[in-house]
Design goal:
Blueprint (H helix, E strand, L loop, with lengths): L1 H14 L15 E5 L5 E9 L3 E10 L2 E13 L2 E8 L6 E9 L2 E5 L8 E5 L5 E10 L2 E11 L2
Antiparallel strand pairs: 1-2, 1-10, 2-3, 3-4, 4-5, 5-6, 6-7, 7-8, 8-9, 9-10
Length: about 150
């Protein structure tokens, strides 16, 4: 019985590992996305394909003023993809390595970054996108979720 449980455990572990081969295109991310909308504010992300990857922008608008902005991109370095973030207030851009896709979820990670250490995108339904950042901050696990919908 014990060898059977070990075999089942290994099967579950490998079947849940992210796959880099399932998705090498991030076309499902392309477009204009909005979320967390109120009467005076909203969060946004915009993505487009380029010759070298995918370029984007993200931020928060409050009372028609952009109060937070970051240039984002998915770039390929050697054989790996990276989520590249140049955010206001950061001296240098930060890269998060693409770990792969589990079903409809793309995972990027940088364990050495202060916060977040992980960026996750979930896309299942046309016109809807879910983004999440998480990791340790001041010794405690933190998570922020961003449900988005197509802005068009």
């Amino acid at each position: 019985m014990k060898p059977l449980l070990s075999l089942i455990s290994l099967f579950v572990l490998f079947s849940c590992s992210p796959s880099k081969n399932e998705e090498t295109s991030f076309t499902w991310l392309e477009g204009e996305w909005k979320g967390m909308e109120t009467d005076s504010s909203y969060f946004f992300e915009n993505w487009k394909a380029t010759a070298t990857g995918w370029d984007g922008a993200g931020g928060m608008v409050m009372n028609k003023d952009t109060v937070f902005f970051e240039a984002i991109a998915i770039i390929k370095k050697e054989n790996d993809f990276y989520y590249h973030v140049a955010a206001e207030g950061n001296e240098t851009p930060v890269d998060f390595k693409y770990l792969g896709i589990i079903k409809d979820t793309a995972v990027f990670e940088n364990k050495t970054h202060d916060f977040p250490q992980r960026i996750v995108y979930y896309f299942k339904e046309k016109g809807k996108l879910f983004a999440m950042i998480d990791g340790q901050l001041d010794g405690r696990y933190q998570k922020q979720e961003f449900p988005l919908h197509s802005a068009k």
